[in-house]
Amino acid sequence: MKAAQAASLLLAAVFLPMIQHAGAQEYPSRPIRLIVPWPPGGITDVISRGLGAALSESLRQQVIPDNRPGAAGTLGVSIAAKANSDGYTLLMTDVPSHAISASLYKKLPYNPLKDIEPIALPSRSPLVLVVNPRIGVKSIQQLIDHAKARPGQLAFASSGPGSITHLTAERFIRDTGVKLLHVPYKGGGPATAALVGGEAGMYFSCISAAIPHIKAGRLTLLGITSPKRSPLYPDTPAVAEAIRGFEMGCNTGFFAPGGTPKAIIARLHAEAMKAVAQPRMKELLAGNSAEAAPYTQAEFKKHVADEVRAWGEVVRAAGLKVE
Q1: Domains assigned to the chain
Q2: Which region holds residue 258: left if phi is over 0, alpha if psi is between -120 and 50, else beta?
Q3: To bridge 208 with a disulfide, which of 43, 202, 213, 254 should be the other Cys (CB 3.0-4.6 Å)?
């Protein structure tokens, strides 16, 4: 009996990697659902559609974006976390919001580090601090002075409670001592529209959503959250010039449900990296002031874990908690 068991274990050790490799070679054999937990119009949606189109060609199966907004991205992530781990349900979401949720929510229906497997980081870009021109400020210091003169009256928009746009503003509040009114929306597109319409006075926006309105004069650009000034806007100061160490990013990550076979994860990582190297994806990223991060799958996984720890500190410092 022991000899038979040993033989079975030996055969499994020999043939299991071959079976897994064969499965990855056959994958995919049907269309893939790509969950986007944000409304259409924001940078995550734009990048998701671009990557989905590129992967549809390379994988020879349709990769279909499925927008599932709500609860600062956690609704869509929850759907992905509960999906079958077979590579036919994938996820694109911004990494900071995904990381923030780990500390923000008391009863999150999934574990951001265990139930969602990082694949690749196709896009990273800074946020921009923009204001409605009607409030009449032209610099970050003028904004701070304006807010301090009207405690609790200046409203800031966000793409949802606990989102990166919310927590970045909370850090702004902490670092400057101002008192602001939070007005949350269901995604970056609605938040930008609200700012343009005057429902809010300021917003830390993903740069892609703000650019058309900045160019049209509908929004005033005050600062950019990269460590230094952007070549696109060399006359616009980094927020860090006014608030030391103030650096944030709008990074869009590619994920799968936890437990997805390693061979499929490796295949998807390789295809995603090929996709972002294509001229049209480079053009799409550049047009949204973004770039691909050349992380291996293991490096991206570590990056997500690091983000969970870093944003946890911000959440706790702000004293935030969502039931």
Answers
A1: 2-125+251-318 (3.40.190.150), 127-242 (3.40.190.10)
A2: beta
A3: 43
